[in-house]
Amino acid sequence: MHDGTAPPRRLDHVGIATLDADRSAAWYVDVLGLVVMGDEYVQAADVRLVYLVAPGSPPDVTTVQLVQPFGPGMVRRFVDSNGEGLHHLCFAVDNIEAVLAGGGVDSEHVFLGGRGRRACFLSERASGVVVELTETMPVVAPR
Amino acid sequence: MHDGTAPPRRLDHVGIATLDADRSAAWYVDVLGLVVMGDEYVQAADVRLVYLVAPGSPPDVTTVQLVQPFGPGMVRRFVDSNGEGLHHLCFAVDNIEAVLAGGGVDSEHVFLGGRGRRACFLSERASGVVVELTETMPVVAPR
Protein backbone atom coordinates (compact mmCIF):
# COMPACT_ATOMS: atom_id res chain seq x y z
CA MET A 1 0.00 0.00 0.00
CA HIS A 2 3.02 2.25 0.37
CA ASP A 3 2.80 2.84 -3.37
CA GLY A 4 -0.19 4.99 -2.58
CA THR A 5 -2.82 2.69 -4.05
CA ALA A 6 -5.15 2.48 -1.10
CA PRO A 7 -4.10 4.05 2.20
CA PRO A 8 -6.69 4.16 5.00
CA ARG A 9 -9.07 7.10 5.12
CA ARG A 10 -8.78 7.36 8.88
CA LEU A 11 -8.57 5.53 12.16
CA ASP A 12 -12.16 4.28 12.32
CA HIS A 13 -12.37 3.09 15.91
CA VAL A 14 -10.53 1.67 18.89
CA GLY A 15 -12.02 -1.53 20.23
CA ILE A 16 -12.26 -2.16 23.98
CA ALA A 17 -13.08 -5.66 25.14
CA THR A 18 -15.58 -5.67 27.98
CA LEU A 19 -17.80 -8.23 29.66
CA ASP A 20 -20.49 -5.63 30.34
CA ALA A 21 -20.94 -2.93 27.72
CA ASP A 22 -23.58 -1.16 29.82
CA ARG A 23 -21.22 -0.81 32.76
CA SER A 24 -18.33 0.29 30.55
CA ALA A 25 -20.45 2.75 28.62
CA ALA A 26 -21.74 4.25 31.85
CA TRP A 27 -18.22 5.30 32.83
CA TYR A 28 -17.50 6.96 29.51
CA VAL A 29 -20.88 8.70 29.50
CA ASP A 30 -21.48 9.57 33.15
CA VAL A 31 -17.91 10.24 34.23
CA LEU A 32 -16.07 11.33 31.09
CA GLY A 33 -18.95 12.98 29.24
CA LEU A 34 -18.97 11.00 25.97
CA VAL A 35 -22.23 10.12 24.19
CA VAL A 36 -23.45 6.83 22.69
CA MET A 37 -23.78 7.07 18.90
CA GLY A 38 -24.53 3.41 18.19
CA ASP A 39 -25.45 0.12 19.84
CA GLU A 40 -25.80 -3.07 17.80
CA TYR A 41 -25.45 -6.84 17.76
CA VAL A 42 -23.10 -8.28 15.13
CA GLN A 43 -24.02 -11.82 14.26
CA ALA A 44 -20.80 -12.76 12.46
CA ALA A 45 -18.80 -12.17 15.63
CA ASP A 46 -21.54 -12.79 18.22
CA VAL A 47 -20.72 -9.52 19.94
CA ARG A 48 -22.52 -6.39 21.03
CA LEU A 49 -20.89 -3.16 19.87
CA VAL A 50 -21.47 0.19 21.55
CA TYR A 51 -19.94 3.29 19.93
CA LEU A 52 -18.92 6.32 21.98
CA VAL A 53 -17.87 9.77 20.77
CA ALA A 54 -17.41 13.26 22.13
CA PRO A 55 -20.59 15.36 22.02
CA GLY A 56 -21.09 17.08 18.68
CA SER A 57 -18.68 14.86 16.77
CA PRO A 58 -19.03 14.58 12.98
CA PRO A 59 -20.26 11.22 11.57
CA ASP A 60 -16.80 10.17 10.35
CA VAL A 61 -15.02 10.74 13.67
CA THR A 62 -12.87 8.05 15.29
CA THR A 63 -15.02 6.25 17.85
CA VAL A 64 -14.44 4.25 21.00
CA GLN A 65 -16.07 0.87 20.37
CA LEU A 66 -17.03 -1.30 23.32
CA VAL A 67 -17.04 -4.97 22.35
CA GLN A 68 -18.98 -7.38 24.54
CA PRO A 69 -18.62 -11.02 23.49
CA PHE A 70 -21.52 -13.40 24.00
CA GLY A 71 -19.99 -16.66 22.84
CA PRO A 72 -16.46 -18.01 22.40
CA GLY A 73 -14.22 -16.21 19.94
CA MET A 74 -11.26 -13.87 19.76
CA VAL A 75 -12.66 -11.24 22.10
CA ARG A 76 -13.70 -13.75 24.75
CA ARG A 77 -10.28 -15.41 24.53
CA PHE A 78 -8.64 -12.01 24.88
CA VAL A 79 -10.59 -11.21 28.04
CA ASP A 80 -9.88 -14.64 29.51
CA SER A 81 -6.15 -14.11 28.95
CA ASN A 82 -5.73 -10.38 29.54
CA GLY A 83 -8.84 -9.14 31.27
CA GLU A 84 -10.93 -6.28 29.92
CA GLY A 85 -9.06 -3.57 28.06
CA LEU A 86 -7.88 -2.18 24.74
CA HIS A 87 -8.32 -4.87 22.11
CA HIS A 88 -7.80 -3.59 18.56
CA LEU A 89 -7.40 -0.67 16.16
CA CYS A 90 -9.60 -0.45 13.10
CA PHE A 91 -8.80 1.63 10.02
CA ALA A 92 -11.42 2.70 7.48
CA VAL A 93 -10.59 1.83 3.86
CA ASP A 94 -12.60 2.21 0.68
CA ASN A 95 -12.19 -1.40 -0.43
CA ILE A 96 -10.74 -4.26 1.58
CA GLU A 97 -9.78 -6.39 -1.42
CA ALA A 98 -7.81 -3.50 -2.91
CA VAL A 99 -5.81 -3.31 0.27
CA LEU A 100 -5.23 -7.05 0.56
CA ALA A 101 -4.25 -7.22 -3.11
CA GLY A 102 -1.48 -4.75 -2.35
CA GLY A 103 0.29 -7.69 -0.77
CA GLY A 104 1.50 -5.97 2.37
CA VAL A 105 -1.14 -7.47 4.60
CA ASP A 106 -3.15 -10.66 4.79
CA SER A 107 -6.38 -11.56 6.58
CA GLU A 108 -8.19 -14.72 7.57
CA HIS A 109 -11.54 -13.80 6.09
CA VAL A 110 -13.83 -10.89 5.39
CA PHE A 111 -17.06 -10.73 7.37
CA LEU A 112 -20.05 -8.45 7.80
CA GLY A 113 -18.97 -6.29 10.71
CA GLY A 114 -20.48 -3.39 12.60
CA ARG A 115 -22.67 -0.71 10.99
CA GLY A 116 -23.36 -2.96 8.01
CA ARG A 117 -19.79 -2.71 6.74
CA ARG A 118 -17.47 -5.41 5.44
CA ALA A 119 -14.49 -5.92 7.74
CA CYS A 120 -11.50 -8.17 8.37
CA PHE A 121 -8.80 -8.65 10.94
CA LEU A 122 -5.23 -8.73 9.65
CA SER A 123 -3.26 -11.91 10.22
CA GLU A 124 -0.17 -9.98 11.26
CA ARG A 125 0.08 -8.16 14.57
CA ALA A 126 2.26 -5.09 14.30
CA SER A 127 3.99 -4.37 17.61
CA GLY A 128 1.46 -6.61 19.31
CA VAL A 129 -1.55 -4.69 18.03
CA VAL A 130 -4.58 -6.43 16.55
CA VAL A 131 -5.51 -4.45 13.42
CA GLU A 132 -8.89 -4.52 11.70
CA LEU A 133 -9.92 -2.98 8.41
CA THR A 134 -13.48 -1.87 7.75
CA GLU A 135 -14.94 -0.32 4.66
CA THR A 136 -16.04 3.28 4.66
CA MET A 137 -19.48 2.55 3.21
CA PRO A 138 -22.03 0.03 4.48
CA VAL A 139 -23.14 -2.81 2.21
CA VAL A 140 -26.36 -3.35 4.14
CA ALA A 141 -28.36 -0.81 6.10
CA PRO A 142 -27.01 -0.53 9.66
CA ARG A 143 -29.57 -1.48 12.26
CA MET B 1 -18.66 15.98 33.91
CA HIS B 2 -21.96 14.41 32.94
CA ASP B 3 -23.58 17.72 33.83
CA GLY B 4 -22.11 18.99 30.60
CA THR B 5 -19.47 21.23 32.11
CA ALA B 6 -16.44 19.96 30.26
CA PRO B 7 -16.81 16.90 28.04
CA PRO B 8 -13.84 15.94 25.85
CA ARG B 9 -13.53 17.57 22.44
CA ARG B 10 -12.46 14.32 20.83
CA LEU B 11 -10.41 11.16 21.14
CA ASP B 12 -6.96 12.72 20.76
CA HIS B 13 -4.81 9.64 20.24
CA VAL B 14 -4.34 5.96 20.93
CA GLY B 15 -1.00 5.12 22.51
CA ILE B 16 0.93 2.02 21.46
CA ALA B 17 3.85 0.91 23.61
CA THR B 18 6.84 -0.14 21.53
CA LEU B 19 10.51 -0.78 22.17
CA ASP B 20 11.46 0.49 18.70
CA ALA B 21 9.38 3.33 17.32
CA ASP B 22 11.25 3.25 14.01
CA ARG B 23 10.38 -0.40 13.44
CA SER B 24 6.76 0.10 14.49
CA ALA B 25 6.34 3.23 12.39
CA ALA B 26 7.77 1.45 9.36
CA TRP B 27 4.91 -1.06 9.44
CA TYR B 28 2.21 1.59 9.64
CA VAL B 29 3.88 3.66 6.91
CA ASP B 30 5.24 1.05 4.50
CA VAL B 31 2.58 -1.62 4.86
CA LEU B 32 -0.57 0.21 5.91
CA GLY B 33 0.05 3.54 4.19
CA LEU B 34 -0.14 5.97 7.12
CA VAL B 35 2.13 9.02 7.32
CA VAL B 36 4.22 10.41 10.20
CA MET B 37 2.91 13.77 11.39
CA GLY B 38 5.14 14.19 14.45
CA ASP B 39 8.20 12.77 16.19
CA GLU B 40 9.36 14.15 19.53
CA TYR B 41 11.08 13.41 22.83
CA VAL B 42 9.04 14.15 25.96
CA GLN B 43 11.30 14.81 28.92
CA ALA B 44 8.64 14.45 31.65
CA ALA B 45 8.01 10.84 30.65
CA ASP B 46 11.41 10.02 29.11
CA VAL B 47 9.73 8.68 25.99
CA ARG B 48 9.85 9.21 22.26
CA LEU B 49 6.47 9.83 20.64
CA VAL B 50 5.78 9.25 16.95
CA TYR B 51 2.38 10.30 15.59
CA LEU B 52 0.78 8.53 12.64
CA VAL B 53 -2.29 9.54 10.63
CA ALA B 54 -3.98 8.70 7.34
CA PRO B 55 -2.70 10.81 4.41
CA GLY B 56 -4.49 14.14 4.12
CA SER B 57 -5.89 14.11 7.66
CA PRO B 58 -6.89 17.42 9.29
CA PRO B 59 -4.73 18.71 12.18
CA ASP B 60 -7.26 17.74 14.85
CA VAL B 61 -7.66 14.13 13.73
CA THR B 62 -7.28 11.22 16.15
CA THR B 63 -3.72 9.92 15.83
CA VAL B 64 -1.92 6.67 16.45
CA GLN B 65 0.86 7.51 18.90
CA LEU B 66 3.86 5.22 19.17
CA VAL B 67 5.43 5.45 22.63
CA GLN B 68 9.01 4.25 23.02
CA PRO B 69 10.24 4.37 26.62
CA PHE B 70 13.91 5.10 27.32
CA GLY B 71 14.01 4.75 31.10
CA PRO B 72 11.88 3.03 33.72
CA GLY B 73 8.29 4.20 34.07
CA MET B 74 4.74 3.16 33.29
CA VAL B 75 5.30 2.35 29.64
CA ARG B 76 8.43 0.30 30.27
CA ARG B 77 6.62 -1.58 33.04
CA PHE B 78 3.71 -2.21 30.70
CA VAL B 79 5.98 -3.70 28.04
CA ASP B 80 7.79 -5.83 30.60
CA SER B 81 4.46 -7.25 31.79
CA ASN B 82 2.40 -7.37 28.60
CA GLY B 83 4.76 -6.99 25.69
CA GLU B 84 4.35 -4.31 23.05
CA GLY B 85 0.79 -3.31 22.23
CA LEU B 86 -2.08 -0.94 22.82
CA HIS B 87 -1.34 1.07 25.94
CA HIS B 88 -3.75 3.98 26.49
CA LEU B 89 -6.51 6.21 25.16
CA CYS B 90 -6.13 9.98 25.36
CA PHE B 91 -8.99 12.47 25.16
CA ALA B 92 -8.52 16.13 24.29
CA VAL B 93 -10.08 18.57 26.78
CA ASP B 94 -9.98 22.35 26.95
CA ASN B 95 -8.79 22.48 30.56
CA ILE B 96 -7.64 19.58 32.70
CA GLU B 97 -8.38 21.24 36.04
CA ALA B 98 -11.97 21.92 34.98
CA VAL B 99 -12.38 18.23 34.30
CA LEU B 100 -10.74 17.09 37.52
CA ALA B 101 -12.79 19.63 39.51
CA GLY B 102 -15.92 17.92 38.19
CA GLY B 103 -15.10 15.21 40.70
CA GLY B 104 -15.74 12.21 38.47
CA VAL B 105 -12.10 11.50 37.83
CA ASP B 106 -8.80 11.90 39.66
CA SER B 107 -5.20 11.96 38.47
CA GLU B 108 -1.79 11.60 40.02
CA HIS B 109 -0.29 14.74 38.57
CA VAL B 110 -0.35 16.99 35.55
CA PHE B 111 2.79 17.06 33.42
CA LEU B 112 4.03 18.65 30.21
CA GLY B 113 3.17 15.99 27.65
CA GLY B 114 3.52 15.65 23.90
CA ARG B 115 3.16 18.58 21.47
CA GLY B 116 3.74 21.09 24.28
CA ARG B 117 0.41 20.29 25.94
CA ARG B 118 -0.45 19.73 29.59
CA ALA B 119 -1.54 16.16 30.22
CA CYS B 120 -2.41 13.71 32.98
CA PHE B 121 -3.23 10.07 33.38
CA LEU B 122 -6.39 9.25 35.32
CA SER B 123 -6.02 7.23 38.50
CA GLU B 124 -8.99 5.03 37.64
CA ARG B 125 -8.89 2.43 34.90
CA ALA B 126 -12.27 2.01 33.28
CA SER B 127 -12.70 -1.56 31.99
CA GLY B 128 -8.95 -2.02 32.23
CA VAL B 129 -8.15 0.95 30.00
CA VAL B 130 -5.48 3.50 30.90
CA VAL B 131 -7.01 6.92 30.13
CA GLU B 132 -5.05 10.12 29.59
CA LEU B 133 -6.32 13.66 29.21
CA THR B 134 -4.45 16.27 27.20
CA GLU B 135 -5.33 19.88 26.59
CA THR B 136 -6.39 21.03 23.16
CA MET B 137 -3.95 23.94 23.06
CA PRO B 138 -0.19 23.80 23.70
CA VAL B 139 1.29 25.85 26.55
CA VAL B 140 4.77 25.83 25.01
CA ALA B 141 5.71 25.64 21.36
CA PRO B 142 5.91 22.01 20.24
CA ARG B 143 9.38 21.04 19.04
Describe this structure in words.
The structure is a homodimer of 143-residue chains. With 143 residues, chain A is an alpha+beta fold. Chain A is built from 3 helices and 8 strands, in the order βαβββαβαβββ. In chain A, strands 2-3-4-1-5-8-7-6 form an 8-stranded mixed sheet. In chain A, strand 6 and strand 7 (118-122) form a beta hairpin. Chain A is globular. The mean pLDDT of chain A is 92.
Strand content of chain A: 35-45%
Q: Output the radius of gyration of chain A.
A: 15 Å
Q: Shape of chain A from CA axes?
A: globular
Poorly predicted spans of chain A: none
Main sheet: strand order of chain A: 2-3-4-1-5-8-7-6
Most residues in contact, chain pair and counts = A-B, 48 and 48 residues
Approximately how much helix is present in the residues of chain A?
A: 10-25%
Quaternary form: homodimer
What is the mean pLDDT of chain A?
Answer: 92
